[in-house]
């Protein structure tokens, strides 16, 4: 059953496009990875689900959640969706958690809003903390965010996300701000919990291998467009788009220290200045004249003029 559907989504600011032709669906309980370099439109795509878009953004096309167009929800419907059906986990937990209130206040806020009494809400919060591997939950509930490490605080955010029993979790580079060991622990917990509860997940990362480990399907984004969508377990054998292949070919070991992105030769294309043809043409080793003139449509899993040749 389809839970979430993007159909020809286009988001622009003034005459500058940010997202174009984004068409993607997420089934109930499915995990879909959105992979691409910074500025490729991944965050904007998931933010459009909850209409967290920049001031003045113009949206065409549709985003449907359980069949209903989000544009028609109205303020109350949107609020209900954000507090109940869709949970968000962002890159930096400190930007989400109120620094002067306790972890318990943060965790119980939504439940209290739903009319749950304080004692029950705290009990549920403690249970949720234990489930994401936070020991000594009752002590943690009384602490403030600065007393917790980034990894612990991100677990708190995940515990809060799970508390509302959402149907969908939007995770935008949830571990980028953490050290490597902590990253692995936090991803493992998010993965385990969402599988156990059959919660759908949109997982944003610049790390293709991480997305493949956590997700059922992968959508690769470049310059505001999706260029390839494929099952995670066929990533290595069936990826056909030259950009996906380039991402796969650039191993993490080749990344210079301090640079977190796997490198693909050339400068990332911005959606704002994308050429009339294929968005990847400036960096593609296979580009020919028609690539620069004519935008490739999706054929099978990828949007590229030369799929057969590339294979
Ligand atoms: Fe490369 Fe052309 Fe395919 Fe674009 S359409 S990815 S430029 S071969
Ligand atoms: Mg981003």
From TrEMBL:
GO MF entry, a single one: ATP binding
UniProt KW ATP-binding keyword: yes
PROSITE patterns: ABC_TRANSPORTER_2 (PS50893)
InterPro entries xref list: AAA+_ATPase (IPR003593), ABC_Ni/Peptide_Import (IPR050388), ABC_transporter-like_ATP-bd (IPR003439), Oligopep_ABC_C (IPR013563), P-loop_NTPase (IPR027417)
Principal localisation: membrane
Subcellular location(s) of the protein: Cell membrane
Family: Belongs to the ABC transporter superfamily.
Record PANTHER family: ATPASE AAA-TYPE CORE DOMAIN-CONTAINING PROTEIN, OLIGOPEPTIDE TRANSPORT ATP-BINDING PROTEIN APPD
Protein name: ABC transporter ATP-binding protein
Originating species: Actinoplanes sandaracinus
